[in-house]
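quick one before i forget lol
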Amino acid sequence: MTYPTDIRRVPAPNSEAPPLSTALALAAGGFPVLPLSRGKVPCGNCPTCVRNACGGRPNMKTPGPCTCPAPCHAWAAATTDADVIASPAWKRAWARAVGVAYHPGGAGLTVVDLDDAAAVDWARRTLPPTRTVPTTRGEHWIYRGTMPSANRVRPGVDIKSTMAYARWRSPGSGVLAPLPDMVRALVVKTPAHRPAPAVVGGAVGHQGGPCPHRTPAYLERGLTMAEQRITAASAHVHATVYATFLAVLSHHGRCGCLTDTHVTRLFTAAQAKGESERHCTEAWANARTALGM
């Protein structure tokens, strides 16, 4: 889903428009919405739904209210159904609401929540430009595409997409860009590697870095682990491929030991999981750029 043109005319919360009017306008544009209560948090579950006694949504993986008519279950209550949003139970919640939230993943979007000036500076130096929304202390950078949500992926940076909510602040400005690999990789954990023993004499490869490969077995073990990691990916394959390329290059890419044969092995593993050669080439290039290579 693209960022709807008409959403740019939806008023910011500090305008004269009440939360219900803003919510209905957002929902009409395809944004699943929910009311925010005091403290900028979703409405608490009603007595029937407290501690998910009602069963909630199946696995809490899809937005939409449960059988309870109230906006329970946080982000999972988000909906685009105007009849639900304007129902008596929801109207009572809107009357107490301090703001409007939406489910980014349900709208096909990812929000990079930059919580302070340092995080904003990092994004401006690192991430491709996209639609930007000012917040109280920082900015929301919004990309087209979804991914798993995660908090504190780096200092002052949260990712809000699937199974999360973001506060609607304003339409923002800028052109919506596709979700980049470098954002997806922020939530992919890279396996820890034991440091290689120091090499006596400091062997140096053609890129000027110290060679950590006392024997070919170290490099072979790293490549085998990388192939296994890509092959084992059951979801978010593209992000896993990029993160794996990044890990291989960071450990083995500066000393000149990687050859075209090694790279072909990694590309072959990725293509077996459905990645195209172009996607592999782009992910490899992006990983090199991220490492300054």
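fyi The two ends are 34 Å apart (CA to CA).
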